[in-house]
Amino acid sequence: MLLRMRLFLSSIVGTFVLLLMLCLGSQNLSERSVVNLGIGKTVPLPQGFVVGLAILCGVFSGGTSAALLAPHQDE
């Protein structure tokens, strides 16, 4: 249980730190594009920010699945 909790918390903390760095890094980007979602459009965002969010979703989901699939430790 402790291993799973450590993996899950490290996934959350790592994703938050990467999100903070992504937000700070994309402040001065001038090229902004709109993503068409089919039912509407998003606000103009830098392309690197959209790609970075997709990567962060993968980091979080991978860390969470690793935490869920970690071997059970018998006490």
* Biggest sheet strand line-up: 1-2
Strand/helix succession: HEEH
The averaged pLDDT comes out at 85
Integer tally of domains: 1
Summed up, the helix count is 2
Sheet/helix structural class? mainly alpha
Low-confidence spans: none
Radius of gyration from the alpha-carbon trace, in angstroms:
17 Å
| Helix percent band | 55-70%
Assess the beta-strand content as a share of residues.
Answer: 5-15%
User: What is the distance, rounded to the nearest whole angstrom, between the alpha carbons of the first and last residues?
Assistant: 10 Å
3D shape: elongated
Characterize the main sheet: 2 strands, antiparallel
Count all strands and give the number: 2
Keywords: Membrane, Transmembrane, Transmembrane helix
Transmembrane segments: 49-70
